[in-house]
TrEMBL record:
Family listed: Belongs to the disproportionating enzyme family.
Protein name in UniProt: 4-alpha-glucanotransferase
One BP term from GO: carbohydrate metabolic process
Presence of keyword Cell membrane: no
Pfam families listed in its UniProt record: Glyco_hydro_77
Oxidoreductase found in the keyword field: no
Length: 509
C-alpha cells in the first residue's frame, strides 16, 4: 500500500500543555468537570488554539500515564463526581465524606494517588449500583449502544480489570495459568463468576467517554483543538498484551525476552530501561499492522491532533535483554518505518501528527518525517549549549515544527534557570538578552512565540513561572511524579491577557 496522504500541517498558532490530572478539583485529582470547561475558556480568551493533554489511559503502579493498562480505556479517576451528582447517581454529602488527600504542602497542591485509589472506586461503585437500579427500571439505550459499539476492546479490558482485582492486583502473567494463558473454558468461567465486576468496569468507561466527548465537543465549538499523546509502547501489565501475546516478544511463560528503553547518553550514564515489552514487528506485519490501524483510528476519534511519543522507535528501536538491570547492554534494530506510517496515515485521515523526535539524530528518521510531512518537536531548554548547529535554538527551526519551553519530562523553565549558575547560563543570557532570573522566562516566551515554528506550546506551570516543585516528571524514577495540581484561581485573567498579547504581537492569533 502506498502512502495515501501526507499529514495535515499546522497554521501559525499557540497552545498550552496541562494534564487532566493537574486541573483544580476538590476531589484530589483533575476531572472532566467545571474546571476543565473553565480551562478551555481560558485558552480561548488567550487567543490560543490548542490544549495538549497527557495520555488519558488508566494508570497503574507508578501512576504514569505512559504506562497504562489499556491503550483504549480511559482513566476512571477523571470521571467528574459532581456530574454524577447532577445525574442523580451520587449525593454531594456522600462524595464529601471521603478523604481525597487535598492537603496543601508548601502552598502547593499534589495528587495523593494512594488516597485516590482507596476512595475513588468505592464512590464509583456506589454510582454504579444506583445506575443499575435505574437501568433495571427504565433501561439505558445510550449505555447499551456504548457497550455494543466498543465491544472490540471493552469486553477484554473489563474482564482484565475484574480478574486483576480478583487476583489481588497482581500482574496478569502471575495469575492462574488457565486465565493467564486465556484458555477458552477459563475465560467463560471468569466471565460468569465476575459478571458484576465486569459490568462495573464497563460502566466506568461509559461515564468516562460520555464526559470526555462532551468536553471535547465544547472545546471544538470554541475553536480549540485537543492534542492527545500516544505512547509508542504498551505496559506489560495491560489488557493489550494479555489479549495479544503473539505480537510481543515474550517467552513461553509470557515473560518479556527483550524490553524497551534508550541507551546511555549525556544525561544518564546507565541509559533508561523502561521495561515495556518489544513488539514482534514481523508478526504485526503479517496482517498489515491491524493492531496499529485500530489503535490510531480510536485515537483519531479521541483527539484532533495526535502526538506520537518516541517516534524514533518506529524506524530504529533499542532493545534491552529483560534480565539486564539497566540499559547499557542493548542494541538498535530496524523498525517497520514507512510500512507503519502508511497505515497510520490511512487510519487518522485528516488529523494532524506531532512526532516526538527528541534524542539522537538518525538520518532515516529525518527522511521518514519529511516524507510524511509530520510536524517535529523542538525544546528551548535544550537550546543553550552554545553550539550553533543545535536544532533547538530558534534560528535553526523549520516552519513545520512545534516548539516547547519544556515538556512534562523536563524541569519547569523557572526551575531550569534557578538550578544553574551564571557560568552555565552565559550563552542563555546572551541569546535571551537578560541576566535577570526574574525576567528570563518572559524572554524565553518571546523567543518561542517570535520563532518561525508554526506552533508554540508551553506548560501551564511555565505560564505561572513556577519552580521545580511543580515539575511533572523525573524520567527513570518512581515517586514524586505526575502529582502537580493547579490550585483554584491560580490561573487568571492576567495570565490570559499576557498570552493573548504574545499571540497578537507574534502573529499567532
Amino acid at each position: 500500500m502506498g502512502n495515501q496522504t501526507k499529514c495535515q500541517k499546522f497554521n501559525r498558532s499557540a497552545g498550552i500543555l496541562m494534564a487532566i490530572s493537574s486541573i483544580s478539583s476538590p476531589y484530589g485529582i483533575g476531572t472532566f468537570g467545571k474546571a476543565a470547561y473553565e480551562f478551555i475558556d481560558f485558552v480561548k480568551n488567550a487567543d490560543h488554539k490548542y490544549w495538549q493533554v497527557l495520555p488519558l489511559g488508566p494508570t497503574g503502579y507508578g501512576d504514569s500515564p505512559y504506562q497504562t493498562c489499556s491503550i483504549y480505556a480511559g482513566n476512571p479517576y477523571y470521571i467528574d463526581l459532581d456530574i454524577l451528582v447532577e445525574e442523580g447517581l451520587l449525593t454531594k454529602s456522600y462524595v464529601l465524606s471521603f478523604d481525597w488527600g487535598d492537603d496543601i504542602l508548601e502552598n502547593q497542591s499534589y495528587v495523593d494517588y494512594e488516597k485516590i485509589f482507596l476512595s475513588r472506586f468505592l464512590v464509583l461503585a456506589t454510582a454504579f449500583e444506583n445506575f443499575k437500579s435505574r437501568q433495571m427500571e427504565n433501561g439505558c439505550k445510550e449505555y447499551d449502544d456504548f457497550v455494543a459499539l466498543n465491544n472490540d476492546w471493552l469486553e477484554d479490558y473489563s474482564l482484565y480489570m475484574a480478574c486483576k482485582a480478583y487476583f489481588g492486583y497482581s500482574d496478569w502473567n502471575k495469575w492462574d495459568d488457565e486465565v493467564k494463558y486465556r484458555e477458552p473454558a477459563a475465560l467463560l468461567k471468569y466471565k460468569a463468576m465476575l459478571a458484576k465486576e465486569i459490568e462495573f468496569w464497563e460502566f466506568c468507561q461509559f461515564e468516562f467517554f460520555k464526559q470526555w466527548n462532551k468536553l471535547k465537543n465544547y472545546a471544538n465549538e470554541k475553536g480549540i483543538e485537543i492534542i492527545g499523546d500516544i505512547p509508542i509502547y504498551t505496559a506489560l501489565d495491560s489488557a493489550d498484551v494479555w489479549v495479544n501475546t503473539e505480537i510481543f516478544q515474550l517467552d513461553e511463560k509470557l515473560e518479556p525476552t527483550m524490553v524497551a528503553g534508550v541507551p546511555p547518553d549525556a544525561f544518564t550514564s546507565l541509559g533508561q530501561k523502561w521495561g515495556n515489552p518489544i513488539y514482534d514487528w514481523d508478526a504485526m506485519e503479517k496482517d498489515n499492522f491491524v493492531w496499529w490501524k485500530k489503535r490510531m483510528e480510536k485515537s483519531a476519534q479521541l483527539y484532533d491532533v495526535i502526538r506520537i511519543d518516541h517516534f524514533i522507535g518506529i524506524v530504529k528501536y533499542y532493545t534491552i535483554p529483560a534480565q539486564c538491570p539497566d540499559a547499557r547492554i542493548g542494541e538498535y534494530k530496524i523498525g517497520p518505518g514507512k510500512k507503519l506510517t502508511d497505515v497510520i496515515n490511512s487510519a487518522i485521515k485528516d488529523k494532524k501528527i506531532i512526532a516526538e523526535n527528541l534524542g539522537v539524530a538518525i538520518p532515516e528518521v529525518e527522511e521518514l518525517l519529511k516524507e510524511n510531512d509530520y510536524t517535529v518537536m523542538e525544546v528551548l531548554e535544550f537550546a543553550f549549549d552554545g553550539n550553533s548547529d543545535n536544532p533547538h535554538i530558534p534560528y535553526n527551526y523549520e516552519k513545520n515544527s512545534v516548539v516547547y519551553g519544556g515538556t512534562h519530562d523536563n524541569e519547569t523553565l523557572q526551575g531550569f534557570f534557578n538550578e544553574r549558575n551564571d557560568q552555565e547560563l552565559e550563552y542563555a543570557y546572551d541569546y535571551l538578552g537578560t541576566r535577570d532570573k526574574n525576567l528570563i522566562v518572559d524572554h524565553v516566551f518571546r523567543a518561542a512565540y517570535g520563532s518561525v515554528a508554526n506552533v508554540v506550546i508551553f506548560q501551564v506551570q511555565d505560564v505561572l513561572k513556577l519552580d521545580n516543585s511543580a515539575r511533572m516528571n523525573f524520567p527513570s524514577t518512581l515517586g514524586d511524579n505526575w502529582k502537580w495540581r493547579l490550585r483554584s484561581e491560580q490561573l487568571n485573567e492576567t495570565h490570559s491577557n499576557y498570552l493573548k498579547h504574545l499571540a497578537r504581537i507574534f502573529g499567532r492569533k
